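Case study 2.
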Amino acid sequence: MCWIPIGLKKLVNTSGTTQIYHLAAMLLATGEQFPKQTWDVKGLLNVLEVARQEKVSKVFWFGSIAVFGPDSPREFCPQHTVTEPVTVYGISKCAEEYWCRYYFEHYGLDLRSLRYPGSICPEKLLLKTCNIKPIALTFYSNLSYRLTTR
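Prediction:
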């Protein structure tokens, strides 16, 4: 069992929360400077556990294309493919995906995620000029996944 901050559990318990949007994450560049803090996935585990205990209907969280490595397909990347992250941020996001899958398979928790690219490219400020395609991943209760690219 995961230790859950009292405030989080109380907030979900008393507010009638039906969905949780977990948007917190460390930026990739910062993560490389502070790998131990980046690896810490307790925030997500706290959210998953309180959602399980309080029977929250859905949890949304941000994934990242950082889970993919140099041998992953570049376009129309399938759900089940090579994930060889090369950064500590990608490693932590990969671990988070496995934690979400575990909570889905063992507790039936409905989890939804988008694997976003970085919102700002190192050389350019506009995402569309970076030639990166966001990948959407949706978890369903019947263990099927829907994959879309844009």
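DSSP finds five helices and five strands in the chain.
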